[in-house]
Design a protein that fits this description.
Blueprint (H helix, E strand, L loop, with lengths): L4 H27 L10 H18 L9 H9 L6 H26 L1 H6 L3 H8 L8 H25 L15 H15 L9 H13 L15 H20 L5
Helix pairs in contact: 1-2, 1-4, 1-6, 2-8, 3-4, 3-7, 3-10, 4-9, 7-8, 7-10, 9-10
Length: 252
């Protein structure tokens, strides 16, 4: 049975909130002043985000656990969303709202640490991504490639599986552990140039929250770069969906 729009909304909202709470939380742990995990490094962040995906997928099974507009768009292009465009819109709205709530919860958890932090770039880095070398075209290409890998593998799993499964297409089609490892792998392999947003909601929602919260020394929200982690992942997801028809043939 396909999930109702209400089920999709609630499932994606809860899953994306947990994703951003734990994902943003591991970044805050690794980089904020006086955090016990300060200096934990890139691999801590990679594994923390992977485990955040694990948690988000686990609780959003009812909707298939897209947790990401790029996944939703890729599955829509691949013909894997029964509700079509309307259902895709519900997925994306819930993902964006969940990302905003998750970012707000990270701020609450680390409130005193944010108050102590004086580096504006560090504060923004907890909420959203940014490139190590600012070159918009190449930053977009990096995000396209990372997101393509994510969505292409998700579609591959859904096509290889039982077509009569009760689990809707999405990250949940892989299972929580495989998709967590996939995200760790993408971050470890392709995350260095841009911080691997690979998810427009994950970047835009927290960036909006950053702009609204009363954080001392926070500086600007870098809206000049904000389009890159939106456009790149959406292009990567759509490309994965389109090429899946050729590169991931249905057997039988």
């Amino acid at each position: 049975m396909d999930p109702s729009l209400g089920t999709i909304f609630l499932s994606e909202l809860v899953g994306t909130t947990l994703l951003l709470l734990l994902g943003g939380g591991v970044v805050a742990t690794a980089i904020l002043t006086k955090s016990k995990g300060l200096g934990g490094g890139w691999l801590l962040i990679n594994f923390g985000w992977g485990l955040a995906v694990f948690a988000g997928v686990t609780v959003s099974y009812a909707s298939g656990a897209h947790l990401n507009p790029a996944v939703t768009i890729g599955l829509l292009v691949a013909g894997k969303i029964p509700g079509g465009v309307l259902a895709a819109i519900v997925y994306i709205i819930a993902q964006l709202l969940g990302a905003m709530i998750g970012a707000l919860l990270v701020w609450l958890a680390f409130k005193k640490h944010f108050d102590e932090e004086t580096e504006a770039g560090t504060i923004l880095g907890v909420f959203s991504t940014g490139p190590e070398i600012r070159a918009p075209l190449w930053n977009v290409i990096t995000e396209v490639l990372g997101t393509f890998v994510l969505v292409f593998v998700v579609i591959g799993f859904s096509r290889a599986g039982d077509p009569d499964t009760a689990t809707p297409a999405g990250l949940a089609a892989l299972g929580a552990v495989p998709v967590a490892l996939l995200v760790v792998g993408i971050g470890a392999s392709l995350g260095g140039p841009t911080g691997y947003a690979i998810n427009p909601a994950r970047d835009l929602g927290p960036r909006i929250v950053h702009a609204l919260l009363p954080i001392p020394h926070k500086g600007g929200s870098d809206w000049g770069y904000a389009w890159v982690p939106i456009v790149g992942p959406l292009l990567g997801g759509a490309l994965a969906g389109a090429l899946s028809y050729v590169l991931l043939p249905v057997i039988g």
